[in-house]
Amino acid sequence: MHHPQPDGEVTFDRMYICLSGCKNGFKAGCRPLIGLDGAFLKTQFGGQILSAVGLDANHHIYVIAWAIVRVENTETWRWFLELLHQDLGHYKEHDWCFISDMQKGLISAVKAVMPDVHHRFCVWHLWKNFNKNWKDLQLRGLLWECARATTYQEFRDGMEKIKRLNEDAWAYLEKWPMDAWTRSLFSHKPKLDSICNNACEVFNAKIKDARAKPIITLLEEVRMFVMRTIAKNKVKLQNHTGKLTPVIKSRLEKVRKESKHWKPIWTGDNGYEKFEVHGHPTNHVVDIGKRLCTCQFWMLTGIPCVHACATLSRVNK
Predict the structure, then answer these.
(1) What does the pLDDT look like over 187-231, one tens digit per residue?
(2) What pTM did the predictor assign?
(3) Domains and CATH numbers, the chain
(4) What is 90-131 written as a DSSP string?
(5) Angle between helix 123-133 and helix 167-174 axes, rounded to 10 deg
């Protein structure tokens, strides 16, 4: 899109790119959590590059779409999100969820284009804003504790501690939607428990040099980076066997080792599926038929938690 000027010159306004391979690959094999972010272009004309970045099955970044705009505001984000929505299909049908920094323009644009969509805020940015007012190390630690909590009780306990230490800090955190920054209230659909928008951070860092170049060169370098990334990851996994990708496999192995410290006790149900799992710091209830555990880790990540692993090894003896 460009604008003619009075003296006949035309200036570049904005451009959106979502390549067919990126779009189809994302829909076919990535988690439905999309990171959104904007980064400055370092040229004399300024401008911003907006991006939508996902994670593939092996937790590598997967760039879906990007756009060049003059400024980052509600109007440009809305334009970008409407085009992305057209490309990826209806958000409710595909269970799309988003994670972003707390840009005001972006939050309202997401609400306008996809009402009621699950939208997480990057806790790193929440923490940075929080840190401007409260530099107390204990408070900062408690904020991260609340964000990482997987059960609502853990989260509320953390918030109570913050309230006792500093009521203003507690009130600041209370004003943000809870399901946007604590794992305990995240949607279970993406099967990703990310509390930071790392995928976008990685993408912005990788194209740092390209952001100082003229627009055509920048766009070409971004396209090449995206193409190379997909090709490189394809080669990495070519000889991999088994259903689980390497990153998930090693994560599950770690959980399995830790599960030895937990003791599952069968509750007596007919299906031999419901167990009470005892251990430190608190006991949990596991239902292997429904793939549920009261710690919520299994539902958040899709990977059995320590309690589920302990139960599964008992059932499979």
Answers:
(1) 999 999 999 999 999 999 999 999 999 999 999 999 999 999 999
(2) 0.93
(3) 1-120+197-239 (3.30.420), 123-191 (no CATH), 246-315 (no CATH)
(4) -HHHHT-EEEE---HHHHHHHHHHSTT-EEEE-HHHHHHHHH
(5) 150
